Amino acid sequence: MEKRSIYADNAATTAVSEEVLEAMLPYFREGYGNASSIYKLGRDAQRAVEDAREKVAKALGAEPREIYFTSCGSEADNWAIKGTAELMAKKGKKHIITSVFEHHAVLHTTEYLEKHGFEVTYIPVSDKGLIDPEDIKNAIREDTALVTIMYANNEIGTIQPIEEIAAICHEKGVIFHTDAVQAVGHVDIDVHKQGIDMLSLSGHKIHAQKGIGALYIRKGLTLPNLIHGGGQERGKRAGTENVPAIVGLGVAIEAATRNISEKNVGITKQRNKLIDGILTLPYTRLNGDRDKRLPGNLNISIEGIEGESLLLMLDMYGICASSGSACTSGSLDPSHVLLSIGLKHEVAHGSLRLSIEDDVTDEDVDYILDVIPKVVNRLREMSPVWEKMMKGEKYE
Amino acid sequence: MLYSEKVLDHFSNPRNVGEIEDADGVGEIGNAKCGDIMKMYLKIDNNIITDAKFKTFGCGAAVATSSMATELIKGKSIDDALKLTNQAVVEALDGLPAVKIHCSVLAEQAVRSALSDYYTRQGIDPLPIVGEIKEPEE
Fold first, then answer.
1. CA distance A261 to A304
2. Given a cut of 70, is residue A338 above it in pLDDT?
3. ipTM beyond 0.90?
4. Which phi and psi angles does A11 have, rounded to 5°?
5. CA-atom Rg of chain A in angstroms
6. Which residues contact A357 (CB under 8 A, 6 or more apart)?
7. pLDDT single digits (tens) A269-284
8. For chain B, what is the domain count?
9. For chain B, how far is it from start to end, CA to CA, in angstroms?
10. Do A326 and B31 touch (CB under 8 A)?
11. pTM
12. Residues facing B36 on adjacent strands
């Protein structure tokens, strides 16, 4: 089979689309004005920023004045969580609820707050990678300031019951934030209907450039200013606007949220073919609920092999993928997400994540399904762990 | 993760992969929980390592360091093999990323573990000759 080049790591980042790049280009050399300037060049830049804000708002079911541009998803998460913490601490509320398998942009922020006098409850997830809203209900206290739960998990793609969680929070008068970096463009979101108070998103996951994100903050909720300085972003996040990036985000989110359900039919079909194909290999398991997951995500544990080796070998065949192995994270522990759904360390080391989009072809899927068994068998042949498994010995 | 060309070469075309059925010494080091296991097989004749093979569960660096370690000891005397340091393996591979240095330590210890087994099989206490085998920390 001829070597192909397949990018199956869209959950890590995406290429800037043609449409986005075209929209951005005029703002580098021609429309380079400062959006705060009074002359036409400045006014045009401001108009472009506000036009992008409208597009982001529309995509989320929000009002434009509820959208604040940030430099990335992590910044949006930090602002939402630390900002709410500061705001509510004044009212004596210093308890935060989150889940054990959030992105590090959330987990490391709550850990930071723990060092500064806040108490944090980490809600466990089921073996399918889902949060039970009842657990959140039971964890809410008189002094709970914030509940922050990711919309969809970045590794195993499981989609959380956001609407139910939001309803519980509102019933109890608690602010609800969701990190929707992985969800935007893949599931239908309507922040007002769903009762979301704050939502973080990132541009580079939906074919905008890296270095642009946004935080939706429901009107009436006044977070402390993030960056002090000029009056940009209604004074809440100072700094001269990155006009091309903002314009790009507007175009990207409009494209990403166009016909989501239609696009998802095809992606889900290809994804399921990949899941079923890979699961024909012995000693493999799908991580995360099969149905309540992002259409393009699959995460499979392949016992007897280690993830980084798998990725390096897939790369030799032109396939870009990801793993929750410790070796790819630079730490000694495998992914906290895979451990949170009950995987043993040795199984978590051998996980594979593919994240595909609607550009994936039947030929791509066939190629991946041809390559993976070859690579897995080759690695298993040289694996002393696999040897022991086959002899029925314990290998821990 | 920036691997040298040599690491990638030894990963994609590992030398001496496999088992030696009638090995004179077999050593295993590491555990699956921490993500790396190396098993090393040695054939020894007249104090000379005539053949070396390995099996490894682990990352690219784990495979490459196992491969390089077997290359460095094949045809050498036991004394020379005992002098093999992880640093020598790293240098032979044109360097390793800092977080992967522990893989080279595993390779060094896998060789010592196999030699230790060789002496045990000969009825000789390996400890004074080979020393303690260092298992990686969990």
1. 37
2. yes
3. yes
4. -75, -20
5. 22
6. A10, A14, A267, A296
7. 999 999 999 999 999 9
8. 1
9. 22
10. no
11. 0.94
12. B31
Residue A8's nearest CA partner among A276, A317, A335, A338 is: A317
* Closest by Cα among A260, A357, A257, A263 to A55: A257
User: Which 3 state secondary structure label does DSSP give B52?
Assistant: strand
**DSSP element (H, E) containing A122:** strand A119-123
Amino acid at A195: G
Tokens of A273: 């073919």
Q: Does B103 reside within a domain?
A: yes
Task: Give the mutation candidate from A302, A308, A316, A335 for the B interface (greatest B CB count, under 10 A).
Answer: A308
Mean pLDDT of A363-386: 97
Distance CA A264, CA A365 (A): 16
Q: What is the pLDDT of residue A63?
A: 98
Other CB atoms within a 10 A radius of the CB of residue A45 amount to 24
Query: How far from A355 is each of A11, A182, A221, CA to CA, in Å?
Result: 6, 11, 35
Indicate the residue of A312, A326, A386 with minimum beta-carbon distance to B11: A312
**Start-to-end Cα distance in chain A:** 37
Element (H, E) at A372: helix A362-381
**Does a structural domain hold residue B137?**
no
Residue A327 annotated among the catalytic residues of the structure: yes
Structure tokens of B77? 């005397």
CATH (domain of B115): 3.90.1010.10
Identify whether the C-beta of residue A148 lies closer than 8 Å to the C-beta of residue A96: yes
How far apart CA A70 and CA A204 sit, in angstroms, is 13
Query: Residue B99: which domain range?
Result: 5-126
Any domain includes B32? yes
Which residues, numbered 7 to 26 in chain B, qualify as contacts with chain A under a Cβ-Cβ cut-off of 8 Å?
8, 11-12, 14, 17-18
A379, closest residue in chain B (CA to CA): B57
Q: Does B57 contact chain A (CB < 8 Å)? A: yes
- The answer to whether residue B37 is domain-embedded is yes
Helix intervals (H) in A61-139: 73-89, 104-114, 133-139
Can you say whether residue A318 is alpha, beta or left, with left for phi > 0 and alpha for psi between -120 and 50 degrees?
left
Of B33, B56, B99, the CB nearest to A330: B99
Determine the 3-state secondary structure of A234 from DSSP: helix
